[in-house]
Amino acid sequence: MSAAAKPQLAPAPTQASGATPPVYRVALTGGIGSGKSTVADRFVARGAVLVDTDAIAHTLTAPGGTAIPVIRQRFGDGMITADGRLDRAAMRELAFADPTARKALEAILHPMIRAETQRQVQAAAEAGAEYVILAIPLLVESGDWHGRVERVAVVDCPRETQISRVMTRSSLSREEVEAILRAQASREARLAVADDVIDNGGELAALDPQIDALHREYVARARAARHGGQVGRSGPLP
User: Fold this and answer.
1) Residues 113, 88: Cα–Cα separation, whole Å
2) 148-200, pLDDT tens digit by residue?
3) What is the fold, at CATH topology level, of the domain defined by 22-48+129-227?
4) Domain ranges in the chain?
5) Whole-prediction pTM value?
6) Exposed end of the chain (fewer CB within 10 Å): N or C?
7) Which of these, 84, 81, 150, 142, lies nearest to 113 by C-alpha position?
8) What is the DSSP annotation of 103-124?
């Protein structure tokens, strides 16, 4: 469920003597159906390391996941499927109806997501990654991003395109998709925090030139940040 993926990352570290240089972090966000996964895959194909907070949340709530016993204790067996995973549809319905339930789920999941995110980011730094793409679907809604990543890239497309894509790939009705969209930040709110906007409203082939240009920029920014000895919120390249 998307409400599970709102990690609050630790502030970007400075480099201590002899320590692993911090890795440059680009937050990738966008509304449901915007094509974040497609964009993320293209960055990975060019050499970026992906840390996907939604994937982390799914692992935590899969059968045998670390979060399952805590969720079961808090919400009861009704939120766990027969095979032992989080019943995401039931939890989504409850979260829409009861904001306190959503906050309770976030209180369980966010520390776990944060810890695993930091572990993966550190592993990427130790492996010498040029930069990390942090896929954070609800980055805007979390309200805790400034100073914690170096760049924010927003995948953008028209609302009707989002609705069509989600209905095509899922069993959700238009009304259900629209309810999800209403619960997310508006398109305008996402664009307001963007350093970079990736237009994914058309053909897939139109993505590649955009990703090529951004990949080159992120590599340049990452190298400039390492040369400066620390990673921080970035402005124009020198």
Assistant:
1) 17
2) 799 999 999 999 999 999 999 998 999 999 999 998 999 999 999 999 999 99
3) Rossmann fold (3.40.50)
4) 22-48+129-227, 54-128
5) 0.84
6) C
7) 142
8) HHHHHHHHHHHHHHHHHHHHHH
